[in-house]
Amino acid sequence: MEGTPQRPSHTAELLQDILERARQLPDEGRCADYIPALAKVNPDYLGIAVAELDGRVHIAGDAQVPFSIQSISKIFGLVLAMERVGEPLWQRVRMEPSGQAFNSIMQLEWEHGIPRNPFINAGAIVVADALVSHFSASRSALIQFIRQLANNPLIHADDEVWESERVHGNRNAALAYLMKSFDNIQSEVPAVLDHYFYQCAISMSCVDLAQSLSFLANKGVRGGSSDVVCDQRSAHRVNALLSTSGMYDQSGEFAFTVGLPAKSGVGGGLVAVVPDYGVICAWSPRLNSYGNSHRSMFMVTTLAEELGLSVYN
User: Fold this and answer.
1) CATH number where 278 lies
2) Is 9 a catalytic residue?
3) Domain housing 226
4) Least buried of 85, 184, 217, 223, by fewest C-beta within 10 Å?
């Protein structure tokens, strides 16, 4: 992105205005009721946060309320695996858009157990296997990594969501055992799934997420600090994958209309990376047919338009 985006000094007021406009939208979609613990979430929660690289954080609504980050956790797992495993990781998972549902079994069968990218479920399970294989306590390594990035030692996995994931995770188990049959899962499947379900059950707020992912907007360096999380090449790769594969089957549409690397989760969260500026995180639990939050997409899209934040400007 050329230059620094022009942004008003009243960012908090702008966020509040966008949030109120989002609140007036029709109540489209519903919570992710196929995970019973998520079905209990108040569908009227609405929050947005912006963490700028200079350390300033602007919020509106329920931006400090923790929620289940679900698939957004795949970013953290991927970065940790890239740093620990290196290039061999890309022999086990590709970097192409899938063109299929995020939990497709047929595509995995056709392609001999090699997932298309690390943001579909099969790819994230491979990444989880890499972490289980390379850390003696992979769950602890992941949660400590996230706490450090967010500067919040209280971040944790919600036990009720974790249990819901385990009880209702049969399709993910099928993906894992299929990949095991193709020798693309190295550890025991139950241990890999336990890690995967754990990371999906991690609870964070919009503020936590925006701050913790600031390194992706700053060439691998955590915003407001000199802490190097990953090298510039790795940050570039993650952003590229987010641009092509981070929004389920709406990834192309989001890139076309918004133009920011982004990742959503079925907890209703949505993070968008703005290089050289910061990270936006919005949350609203009601999901559309693609598994994305309609109101979160509206808030991020509107803010990007108001401030001219697209990487393609």
Assistant:
1) 3.40.710.10
2) no
3) 11-70+204-307
4) 85
